[in-house]
Amino acid sequence: MWIWFGLAVLALIGEIANGTTFYLLLVAVGLAAGGLAALAGLNIEAQLLICCGIALAGLFILRRTGVLKKREVDATRNADVNLDIGGVLRVDAWEAGGTARAQYRGASWQVELAPGYSPQSGEFVITAVRGSSLIVAPRPLVARS
Q1: Percentage of residues in the chain with pLDDT exceeding 70?
Q2: Nearest to 129 by CA among 79, 73, 72
Q3: CATH fold label, 88-138
């Protein structure tokens, strides 16, 4: 009977140590429910069924409420994922269709102008990376005092 509670404590320690987004916490709650079933005098099959049922019910509830929803990160526009975003490069001439070739980090890159901007030479900021193309927007002018 006490093995259930010991395993529940180990699962809680694992959750705190790893931060596995509630999965081990659900296992700990299920194990504790199995321990309560053992205290109530139920047979081992019922204890196992209650343990699994409570853990799965918790998983279902947390998925339905969105707590365990997978957070998708758009790597093409996220500077935390792609370190090139926010980088500055110079484009001297644009081709038809808003594309150009530019030097960036010692290599020649395909550059595409972000929608809503007119192609003109100057400095540009990388706003996204799509495949091997850098999507850029004009660099804002900084007022100097």
Answers
A1: 90
A2: 79
A3: OB fold (Dihydrolipoamide Acetyltransferase, E2P) (2.40.50)
